[in-house]
């Protein structure tokens, strides 16, 4: 039983890694413009 649980956890890790790789590839393929943060002046107290 321990071996079955171990094998299932290994398969789960592989599934998550594959999903992350696909998500990263889709994000790179989308060719989105770079994110830009607005620079604002700090409020005077």
Question: What percentage of the residues does DSSP assign to strands (E)?
Answer: under 5%
Number of helices in the DSSP assignment:
1
Averaged pLDDT: 90
Helical fraction equals 55-70%
> Based on DSSP secondary structure assignment, what is the total number of beta strands?
0
Termini Cα gap: 64 Å
Kindly name the structural category.
mainly alpha
Reading the helices and strands in chain order gives H
The value of Rg in angstroms is 21 Å
Low-confidence stretches: none
The gross shape turns out to be elongated
Describe the sheet with the most strands: none
Task: Set out the fold topology.
Layout (H helix, E strand, L loop, with lengths): L1 H29 L15
What does this structure look like?
- With 45 residues, the chain is mainly alpha-helical.
- Helices cover 64% and strands 0% of the residues.
- The chain is built from 1 helix and no strands.
- The protein is elongated and about 65 Å long.
Primary descriptors:
1 helix, 64% helix, 45 residues, mainly alpha
Give a summary of the structure in a few sentences:
With 45 residues, this protein is mostly helical. It has one helix at residues 2-30.
């Amino acid at each position: 039983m321990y071996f079955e649980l171990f094998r299932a956890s290994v398969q789960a890790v592989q599934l998550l890694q594959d999903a992350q790789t696909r998500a990263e590839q889709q994000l790179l393929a989308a060719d989105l413009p770079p994110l830009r943060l607005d620079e604002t002046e700090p409020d005077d107290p």
